[in-house]
Amino acid sequence: MKSVEEIKAAIEAAVPGVGVKIISNPSPSAQHSLLLDSGTAVDVARFLRDDPELALDFLSNVTGVDYLDKEISEKVKVTRPVTKTVDGVEQTVEETVEETRKHTESGYLEAVYHLFSMAKKHGPLVLRMRTVNRTDQVELPSFTPIWRSAEFQEREIFDLFGIVFTGHPDLRRLLMWDGFKDHPMRRDYVEPDDFEYEPTAHDEVLARAKAHKAAGQPATLVAPEVPGGAP
Amino acid sequence: MKNRDTTSGHALEDWNRPPVFETEGEGELLEVSMGPHHPSTHGVFRMDVALDGERVVKLKPVFGYLHRNHEQIGQSSSYLASMPYTDRLDYFCSLSNNWAYALAVEKLVGQAVPERAEYIRVITAELTRVQNHASAIGFLIQEMGASGTPLMYAFREREKILDLFESLTGSRMMCNYMRFGGCRVDPSPAWLDATRKVVAGLPQFVDEFENLLSGNEILMARTQGVGVLRPELAVNAGITGPMLRGSGVNYDIRKVDHYGIYDRFKFRVPLGDHGDIFDRYMVRILEMRESIKILEQALKEVPAGPIMDPKAKIRGFRPKPGEAYGRIEAPKGELGFYLISDGSPNPYRYRVRPPSLINLTVLEDMCLGHNVADVVLIFGSVDIVLGEVDR
Amino acid sequence: MLGEGILKGLAETARNFAGSFVSKERLTTVEYPEERLPLPEASRNFPFLVYDGPNWEKGLRCVACQICEKECPPKCIYIEKSKDKKPDFVGKPQIYPAKFDIDISVCMSCQICVEVCPFEAIKMDTEFELSTDDRFGGLLLDRKQLARSNEYYHTIHPTEASQVDAKLAEEKAKAEAKAKTDAAAKAKAAADAAAKAAAAPPKAPEGGTGTPTPAAAKPRDTEPKQAAPEKPSDPAKAASQAEPKGEPKTGGD
User: Fold this and answer.
1) Nearest to A118 among B109, B249, B357 (CB)
2) Under CATH, to which class is C47-166 assigned?
């Protein structure tokens, strides 16, 4: 199979106005990926499937990844005019102060696709698409009209991460039940408090047990006295 | 055998969706929910079926009853701690799952595996394939109404193979045997001899099995022409494993990816002609024979040496940031693991590509127009395990 | 002929049925619980703690390092360290677990705790008939229920246990040899210091006060004392030093 740079060149030649970037993979597996713009992604996908040389007709794996909002604080040198009293005389002096500026880089949800070719027996090619943010702009185009194998996997990503795939014929929850709220695989998912009883509670389970007790919830099961227990 | 690789250039969009059946006559459609408590659904699985008399007009699979949050657990445990959880994905083939996960992690860090470990991995994987295909056929025939006889024959052989697993790894099904850089325990020469004895008895078992089943007229009448899957749809829907090869597409990851040491063994890949249930059944029988061939070749030349790479780490394993996708030809299809590491002891993203879930994508296409009784057979020929579908 | 395949299948079934009266291979039913199959040696079910010698509390190998607690995938182990110390098999005082609970309703028998234990203290048992009618207390095994002797370990996993015993004996021999060389080095260092002290003061009386006299007396006093035990009873000295530490050799005597 061609290298990632050659594939990028082929895509840019075939689909006009496309946005493709190479994201390199530092691990020894050397599976570099192409980051696609959501606008032209479907045309790129169709080209990848129908191109006689690449013939990537097998979409093997579709998965979602969640990246949280990052708070970045940087120290910036700011020159500001300050009024100071020098030797009893009021003067305006320029002073350089170091300030810590914080801004939030909005996180995003990402869909990763692994493509192989059954005709040419090569692969994988990794594609990525990112949403704008995690809260309201979470749409991505669906690849189901091009590769049918994306059907269930995109439903699962919608269920567990919350990415809305536009153009999917039947987008509803797959693993969770239909009335479920929230998206469980997101990294900021808070589980509902259904703690019952754990005999060997320690670390985070112990923290949950304490929080459950502190919240004044009734104990559904009472811990029995352990007979002949400790030392 | 004709090589029916798919050719691109088809207008796939029009038949990418399942066809819509027009009902004849008046009256409403009967909506039946088959499952989740059902003896033939291989686990807790539900199908919402709309019937016109006996014919299936619409079929929507519903699952998630066995969702155990495996990917979330993988992301909050270390890499080693996820290994016993992979046993429980496809609980019939725990050693294949272990190998797929170990392969993905070894790709992520570039870990080498000693030769003896590679041979043992191939031997255990092929033993797993034999017992999985035997059980799958046994369950399929049971759903046809054979009341357990072929299933019990298959399980008799399976017990011998599971005894081998127990004396090697300590447990019959939840083996937890592969590690990143080799295998956990070195098999003794006594174990290799016992394996050779079991493998010597396997061809006779497959012959008996075929004698019992393949010529059976009831089987042929019920399975030939039922549940046809076209090769173009199979490729587009990402089907892998015996279901894909039953439709005639020559794609076996052991031959394509050249993972492990499969290149050293001579074996063929059986392909089907029509893509119906009978072809998938025959592909599984022939794959069992090919696996026995691989086992005989591998057991002759197991080299001495270390079972684990000396540079491999058990505790304190922290791969550098990066990602990797590793896949193997599991008995059910392509089992892949996708790992993203950010340098910490837990993976940042841990994803299982489940063959059973993807193979279910075309269940509706295969079942439309058939009777309800055929739905159970078609479902059995897909050969799924709910542990893998729901994870 | 129509039905030939079915007849062939029926012949196969008949062969199996008739054969089950004759050959053991075809009759695979085991009448449990009257008949039991022998388990292979490597089989594992739930963990147990190994102790050496007759007293389980004194001979427990576990030193509460909590590595198994950290590596356990479903987090079913709970350890509390003790406040005091007890001597281990080489004689070094180690802390021991005051509480060691395993919840076997959570344990998935993955054997990772056995793999990562550096002290060969936790091993896998083969006992599987563990049903109880108390759902939480009955399936929470504490330290006492988990402790089994080394002899029991030999009965269930003979080859593994012999390998572990060999390894521990090797470690103990190494530790004892190290202790001996340490003691010899210490004695030699003390003798050298005394010899130096003996060499220095004889020069002092030329220009000194009354202090050299006790110093002059000292080397004559200590030197023979140092010299005598140094050579002949050196092993005895080392042995007597090692003895109190090496007391629980093969278990809390």
Assistant:
1) B249
2) alpha beta
